[in-house]
Amino acid sequence: MLFNSWSFAVFLPLVFALHHAGRRAGWQVGVLTVASFAFYGWGTDAGGSPHWKLLPLLVLSTLVNGFAAQELLSAGRSDRRRRVVLGLALAFNLGALGFFKYAALIGKLLLPAALWARWGDPLSHIPLPIGISFYTFQGISLVMEAWWAGAAGIVGLAAPTAAGGRGWFHAKVWFFKSFFPQLVAGPIVKAGEFLHQIGAKRWADVDWDGAVKKLVLGFFLKMVVADNLKDATAALRFPEFTDLPRINLLALLYGFSFQILADFGGYSLIAQGLAKLFGYELPLNFDMPYLSRSLTEFWRRWHISLSSWLREYLYLPLGGNRRGAGRTYVNLFLVMFLGGLWHGAAWSYAIWGTAHGLLLAGERFFLGQGRAKEAVGWTIGSAVRAFVVFNVVSALWLLFKLPDLSHAVAYARCLAGNSGSPQVQALFVVAVFSAPVVAWHLWSVAAPGCVRRAPALAGRAETAAYAMMLWMTVINAGSPGDFIYFQF
């Protein structure tokens, strides 16, 4: 089910009313869990296959991770038994992700030509469950935190000591794994960030101001900015772009850069706003990433929940920066390479991740750890660095828009060789719908000073901006489309 669909417009108030109709935590958790599975199973994919057919995988994932966590948190378990449980749980999570997402890529890479001729077509048509990357990473977070905590328990989730306790334990796990605002495209919520929040919620405690602001901004970014840019950048596909003049090729690339931020950033804001309606806080996922003055800073601001997950469960276990400079560079490269593959089973994503990994390592080598970190304040030099980082990041987004490497190469050749007069109308459309993202970033820089010098005026300006965004969402939404990160 899409957030920007009429079915969701019926679903949300119904679930909200049912949730707040009961005051007990069990009722509220039960309502949200059932609603979340209904949300996931609603609708069909691009091929017409109903989504409910993929519900058994989500159920199995929840069962495996729930019982593994229970075992890892129980007192008296031997180290050997705990290692076996952890290994089996990780093998299941990574195996399921590998089978559904990477079977075709691995098969084409490893199988002899004769076997690939026989098995290539079936492997290439394995369905990709929506959100599998996100809920699998949540499952890994649960079992890893249970492994580290042991009998001490995760805050909000201790091993059950009685039959009734087991029911509530697994109810919490099912809710954590399926909570619909973040189920299919994040933010990736770690167990320690969410489980302690589970409990009875009151209507009076709903953060209406925070929820409404995030929902208005999120829907505006998705429906007005991203969906209109989606239509405007549709020409960035092979072979349609091959006849376009150089300036239009650049505009399409920058338009896609703003589109992907508005689309995914909008989704994350909607998810945060929806969670607030039910009394839950989801982590920040985007923090004005196009203001970054280094690639290191960019990855602290872009898809923060993924960056945090990779750091905590991959980079640090590999040794982080504690085993010398050489190992640090290898760890950065490996984490970004795997982070690229996380986005999709295509070599273009691996190249995208590899490029970011090499740039991060090079940045650390040439600038040192201190200068690669987030800077404070703005100077002409820092503005130039931000401009360079934005251009590098935008150029690499080409591999997302054109995952076929031959098409990306064709784009680069056209950019170098095409001439001709600009197509002014297309440039204007990209500029108009990119402008709100630019304004959003600039306001984040100017807002603290404005609030400090003229708080009343800043408050009125903010109210007017939200009213304008709401109005634009109603009258100027683009053609509805899936969120970009659904495919990951």
Helix content: 55-70%
Give the SSE order as H and E letters.
HHHHHHHHHHHHHHHHHHH
**What is the global morphology?**
globular
**What does the average pLDDT come to?**
90
Strand content: under 5%
- Separation of the first and last Cα atoms: 16 Å
* Domain unit count: 2
**Helix/strand/pairing category:** mainly alpha
β-strand number = 0
- Poorly predicted ranges: none
The description of the largest β-sheet is:
none
Question: What's the alpha carbon Rg, rounded to whole Å?
Answer: 23 Å
Give the helix tally: 19
Task: Describe how the helices and strands are arranged.
Elements: H1 6-21, H2 25-41, H3 55-73, H4 79-110, H5 113-124, H6 132-149, H7 163-178, H8 191-194, H9 208-232, H10 246-277, H11 295-301, H12 304-315, H13 325-342, H14 347-372, H15 380-396, H16 398-401, H17 405-417, H18 424-453, H19 455-475
